[in-house]
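Homework help board

Subject: predicted structure for assignment chain

Our instructor gave us this sequence and asked us to write out the predicted structure in token form, then describe one feature. I got the tokens but I'm not sure how to describe them. Can anyone check?
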Amino acid sequence: MSNSSIQLAATTSRRSFLQAGALALGGMGLGDLLRFREQARAASKHASPDTSVILIWLQGGPSHMETYDLKPDAPADYRGEMLPISTNVPGMDICELLPLHAKVADKFTLIRSISHGFANHAAGAGRFLSGQKPKRLLDPLAQYPLIGPIVARVRQDRNVGLPNYIGNQPRVYGGGSAYLGESCLPFVVGGDPNLDSFKVPNLSLAPQLAGRLDDRLQLLESFDNCRRDIERTDSMDSLDKFNRKAVDLLTSDRALKAFDLSLEDEKTRQRYGRHKWGQRALLARRLVEAGASFVTMQMQNPVIPGAIGNWDIHAVNGHLFVDARARLPAFDRAVSALIEDIYQRGLDKKVMLIVSGEFGRSPRINPQKGTGSKVMQPGRDHWPGAMSVLVSGGGMRMGQVIGSTTDKGAYAKDRKLDPNDLLSTVYRHLGIDQNIPFADLSGRPTTILPYGTPIRELV
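My token output:
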């Protein structure tokens, strides 16, 4: 057999089953990925509770002034056009375009007082999600591993029948695994889960495995056929433990079911929203429910008329308020359904949800001529001095607002927090010691977090 990897594809069946696509791990076979993780075993001897994290990442930086921290009493060139509405938590007001959020506010907490000092996308994401200060501010690849790769590394021996770290892109902009290596990047599930043509990336096997299997194991009929092919060949006896684990992962019932959105009833799928963001949120719930430790779903490029690609709503990119009215209803439905579902399914102690981008937006509106529209229109620029973060679940205290910003939304005022405090809270939930050291590229031991304390109002 001449192929260097085995590609498994599932045809559309009575349940519109999964299909295989392209591997997004730099061409690495899964056997290689598992082998590299085995070599890093020394750092993974710490017990891991049955807990998970979903990170809904809003690439570009959402405006806190149009979502979770409105300032209706500020001057017009600060407050903008959106009005606040009450939620089911007294004293917690949010944007009028988030009415479904308002109904489940008792199941989430808003943090309004996190800030940092990095105002470009790459550095802002790296700073927020690694807890380390980047040295090369414009580098699209992280100089320090983000939280997802850290979890993948520490939990590398945790075998639940599907990848521990899953994302819809190989990395966030400005992120990555840095000195932990590519073995700690996520298993990537790209595309639009709402489409009938949705494909799940292939778990490519190591080249040596391809030469040892008697048949080209393709899921032309079902994963069951693949399992039977493997069971009736004695080639498995010649595989090393890494390839055995790869095949086990490849053909597990848990993986098969977790990625199959057709197993959800249509009412649930509609509740999340029959669009890319809604189905990504639903897929994230299915993956953590099946045992994945860390799932990152980026909500960008919504393909909604009036909305720009990501959350980077400078005036040159788009009209601030037209964009908000276009994108926020889809965002509202997806996130509120995810929160509600986590609680209804009894996952609220197991699963911690984080919804955030790399920073907020400038408190003062900055009108400029739009690149596409050619007319003057309102926008907001990058702003790390204030941002809002939503957290839910994790067995934490919900239905509260932590911290506040100044009267124009410019800076954290009360209960000033650092991104590291949020990360420390997440690591606590996952049972990961934030003081574990890893050797960087120079061989110097670098702890997961240089500082940070779990947020007391949550824990």
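Reply (TA_rk): Your tokens look well-formed. For the description, you could write something like this. The two ends are 55 Å apart (CA to CA). That's the kind of observation they're looking for.
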